[in-house]
Write a structure and sequence with these properties.
single chain; 129 residues; alpha+beta; Immunoglobulin-like; 5-stranded antiparallel beta sheet; 1 helix; 8 strands; 36% strand
Length: 129
């Protein structure tokens, strides 16, 4: 087998191992006592504001009876897209700031727990001048 064949085999083996680890991790249950009957509901109270060249996204905290581990913020240049970035924020925060070039951004927030990811919040339009 030549050098390229060996590299292809190594890449394939590493890929299979990583997919297996991902599958095992995805099947794990949440922490003991975590409410994992369903993914959280969509974040509410989402608002955006431009502060110079920075965009700020805020949202209401999750209801006390919902376990949230992280929030996912998506931004796109067209409605529903995430081509401008996908960002993760800890469950302990309800705000996210990011430098951005001038333009119009469509922003959504999701909540995540051990059971999955919520539906999207209502999309907001952020204009950076």
């Amino acid at each position: 087998m030549n050098k390229n064949g060996v590299i292809a085999v190594v890449v394939m083996v590493v890929s299979v191992v990583l997919v297996g680890l991902w599958a095992m991790r995805s099947a794990e249950q949440g922490p003991v006592g975590a409410n994992c009957s369903a993914p959280p509901s969509a974040p509410t109270g989402v608002a955006v504001v431009a502060e110079g060249t920075k965009g700020r996204v805020t949202w209401a905290p999750a209801p006390a009876d919902e376990s949230v581990t992280t929030y996912i913020i998506e931004a796109g240049s067209t409605p529903g897209s995430n081509n401008q970035g996908t960002f993760v924020a800890p469950a302990t925060t309800t705000a996210f700031d990011r430098e951005a070039s001038a333009g119009i951004y469509y922003v959504r927030v999701f909540a995540r727990n051990a059971c999955g990811t919520s539906p999207s919040s209502q999309e907001q339009t952020l204009t950076i001048r």
